[in-house]
């Protein structure tokens, strides 16, 4: 007897496998030991350096800001919009070597800091600040992160795509961060600079598979602190660490060195060379727990909705359609508000604008996650996710204008020019203003995350040159279409709403409405926040897409349930409530972000704190519009459906 595999497991397996597919557009590069006639085979291996970041600060910095060895002929590969927005600044490094042979203890440069020089003191202080806040290097070889692999608990190996500048032993003798890896790091009030790296490059030879050269499948390193006494007689086996005292009293000289070893491994394929990094991140079991937790919530809600639809609603409709008019007047329930249920809401202009923007965000999110599942936006394609999202948002102005205009016309609004302008400018304007203020702080702090003025102008040009005109086009077609026809007429005189119980009052219902949707996403939210603020790699778009679908269902069902209960209590003000019920999930998102900030992050400094909450507010606003729109349209469909099947005299 064959076991049946649950559909949920099949979907997750499909999407997870999709996210691991070979990424189109990124072709493998072959390396040869000697120069050949084959132009596709390279001998020089280029090591690129990216911006440095820290879990204790939101401010990333360019490699050049720290006083490290610099490449004389510096080259910067072109960066896409997503990389610029995320503060990535990739440049060539002074670490030069060829594909085999091994390199033993090669000098990169000598940095000397004179105690009498204010400039040297400032440079050394900035380097110390980087070590104190545990700033991490991010190096790249063949578009692959150079990782630092080390053992963690339960004999697990974790491969970090970054490694620290150095570390600090505090005045009370406590070894901070990476200083715990070496017992030699024991001198109080002393910084230890990691001035040497042992790089190990693993390659896959093409001889057995019929292609020339070799392909790099892994690049790891081990940072070391070595005190070189003579730059002409380097000894990388020296166990004495490179100490930099907290107090700058004597001249300090730091010699940067490196070693490179090559190892052949034909079991690792080029297409799966990222696996060793991803496997070291122990998330899979928690992800399955997250999915099962979300599915339980969905099944519970689906059962409730099904019970209401099939039993309660069916009985209500049958009863309402059978009784005569006199009996109906004595009845209570949702039919009694049929003459008021489609009465236009207050502030209909603002609601229609929010719904237009929410539709734009919803379509953008769906397409972006779908493409990410297919492997187009994997971590190997740097900045592609953000670039895709921004471009899609700009191009989706037409649906936003159409939805906003059509609903505003349905609400009986006549100020169509104001509606179009607010749809095009209100929410994007709030996001841009917040973003610009955060950017000012980054400019002041000289951070690499500060968006260049030219990029800001380009973003404004995309907004006003593409998104706004498309919004006007969508609004034009929306206003040309007839208003959405309601299944029942609206009475001229509003019906009085009876006294409500505590649970059917607006605020308790809205607060309760966001709990279940948030319960579906909070585990996934932890990994997303980790990838943003703790600089961990996020690659599980299959799980994320499934959670996205579950969130849609949960928001819809929770809003429909609460909407039905309120209509049964003869409260017909459902327009704004349906939007705010599921939109309140964003408030829980903000509360969780506050909890994450204080419990999981070690961020210090006013600038970093302001940046964290500034960017969090952008996320909360986008999520509010997204979830609110889902809840509104689910409730709108539900209300139209139930009042279209009941007879009204």
UniProtKB/TrEMBL annotation:
Sorted alphabetically, the keyword list is: Membrane, Signal, Transmembrane, Transmembrane helix
Membrane topology per the entry is: Multi-pass membrane protein
Q: Which SUPFAM superfamilies match?
A: MFS general substrate transporter
Q: Say yes or no: keyword Transmembrane helix present.
A: yes
Localization per Swiss-Prot or TrEMBL: Membrane
Q: Name one GO biological process term.
A: protein localization to membrane
Question: Which positions carry the signal peptide feature in this UniProt record?
Answer: 1-20
One GO cellular component term:
membrane
Membrane-spanning residues: 288-310, 353-377, 383-408, 420-444, 456-479, 510-533, 539-567, 579-598, 610-639
Q: Which family does it belong to?
A: Belongs to the nonaspanin (TM9SF) (TC 9.A.2) family.
This chain's protein is named Transmembrane 9 superfamily member
Whichever gene encodes this chain, its name is AL929434.1
